[in-house]
Amino acid sequence: MPDWKDKIRCSFCHKKSTDVEKIIAGPGVHICDQCVELCNAILEEERLASSTEPRLPMWESMTEEQILDHLPKIAAVQAQVDDNLRDWVGHLRGRDVSWERIGASLGMTRQSAWERFRSET
Questions:
Q1: What are the tens digits of pLDDT across the range 3-41?
Q2: Which UniProt keywords are present, listed alphabetically (predicted)?
């Protein structure tokens, strides 16, 4: 079984946790210390410039190749979030929480929750 450190990646730059000093976990997402530093630098630059322009490349300013290169990163983050969600649902099922309550929490029916997560519990 792989170590959790091999599985966790930054949701922003997609670096492995073993390639950075620190990973901070959120609800299904993670951010590395390097991305936090970059965010802080962007916020400071914007504060000094009093700019409200977005710093991330928007679709309109990206080439098709840049967008295509970005898709695998988005898919990897989605897979990481899905894995984390399955872990949380599995923990709830371990506590005998009903599919009805889990589904209601996720905004879906009991049946939909069961169909999506049943194989993981």
A1: 666 678 898 898 998 999 999 988 888 999 999 999 998
A2: Chaperone, Metal-binding, Zinc
Cβ atoms of residues 13 and 34 within 8 Å: yes
DSSP per-residue string spanning 40-70: HHHHHHHHHHT-----SPPGGGS-HHHHHHH
Give the tens place of pLDDT for each residue, 79-96: 888 988 998 999 999 999
Model-level pTM?
0.60
Structural domain boundaries enclosing 11: 1-56
| Three-class SS of 1-17 | CCCHHHHCECCCCCCEH
Same domain, 5 and 45: yes
Q: Is 39 annotated as a binding residue?
A: no
Question: Could you tell me if 5 and 18 are in contact, meaning their C-beta atoms sit under 8 angstroms apart?
Answer: yes
Q: Which of 9, 35, 56 is the last residue of a domain?
A: 56
